């Protein structure tokens, strides 16, 4: 049987062309994925602001021009909320400084020991006044985190004293002294720190700052009791979710990889809890059972940890009650001092449905400004030209700029009131 001859010359020229086409298709696919994942086609814009037209808000937006100017993230990766969040979480700030402070220990009524770090200003404040920033970090964070160190260093150089709460149980080298650690909305330790600052520096004025979970705590603290607002010039909250009850379902969804972030945060919380298991689950504590411990080991979401462990530190009967009582959404309307609420539209942790809370608040209350950036991720807000971000973030600069504007407003208001009083006295003395 004759074997047919294969015309090699007729097929061979077509093969390289076919391979070239496959290579081009592969390159095009990769580029498409990169463009989509990095969100490169997204525009840059100034923050979307919600506020009432009042003299104070006009002054603040004029003085704090960063809120009205275009926020420009690094070109190649800054428009990805995931990369902004990852860089904040894993790499921290660029060339993070190491501010030197003193660690303070405060005994609580239930036997717990609250700790915070106190940093003195490195320059005179622009107004000449004594002003202290009381700062509450994010979940499981403390004064040694990169983003906190960078913000503190920047604030010190602008003339602010800084007091940074270390969440109960968050510092790896500090042992707990009672069977309780920090929770989503417990304000006890923050209140103790603020009380210390007020007693030690009676002349100081306070700027309250909260990041993520810390934003929930500080807004709840101010709204719990109006006396907590005495001596407070303003409050700034960045990237918080406002309502744990509303957020619990969205945090279990896979869109924007929230379920994955939930798992990572759950794993970190497990490590913190288990590092203190001796005091948390000793014989002196009857709040947590062996079954609760088993559920802790198998937990894959923060909801499961909150239900089996965290709510029991304060005796809540259910997860719903815990989230209801611990969320600032039920207290924030009581805050009357100027309030700046900052969130990012591409924050992978905070669902867009939660942002109706600060937007509605800003529409109803004249003391509130809600700023929503198009990019920034969760506590990212990096700035930079192409690839390498700047050491200071947009978030760092906005908080200090807003605080400066508030202090200037108070200074000018006091001067005007003093001048009017003097004029009144002199007119009465005239014959």
UniProtKB/TrEMBL annotation:
Its main location: membrane. InterPro entries: AB_hydrolase_1, AB_hydrolase_4_CS, AB_hydrolase_4_sf, AB_hydrolase_fold, ABHD4. It catalyses: hexadecanoate ester + H2O = an aliphatic alcohol + hexadecanoate + H(+); a triacylglycerol + H2O = a diacylglycerol + a fatty acid + H(+); Hydrolyzes glycerol monoesters of long-chain fatty acids; 2-(5Z,8Z,11Z,14Z-eicosatetraenoyl)-glycerol + H2O = glycerol + (5Z,8Z,11Z,14Z)-eicosatetraenoate + H(+). Residues 132-385 form the AB hydrolase-1 domain. It comes from the Eukaryota. GO terms for cellular component: sperm flagellum; sperm plasma membrane. The active site is at 212 (charge relay system), 347 (charge relay system), 378 (charge relay system). Belongs to the AB hydrolase superfamily. AB hydrolase 4 family. This is Monoacylglycerol lipase ABHD2.
